[in-house]
Specification:
This is Twin-arginine translocation signal domain-containing protein. This protein has 39 residues and is mainly alpha-helical. Helix content is 64%, strand content 0%.
């Protein structure tokens, strides 16, 4: 949980994007694969 929160903070995720990232991160997905590119 701590590492997922730290990764979300580093990526400056907020709101729905943060929740989606944390959801996939906590399910065991690799953080790099869980972060959608919204740029």
């Amino acid at each position: 949980m701590k590492s997922c929160n730290a990764d979300a903070s580093l990526r400056s995720l907020t709101g729905v994007e943060r929740r989606a990232f944390l959801s996939t991160c906590l399910k065991g997905w690799a953080p790099a694969a869980a972060a959608p590119s919204s740029a």
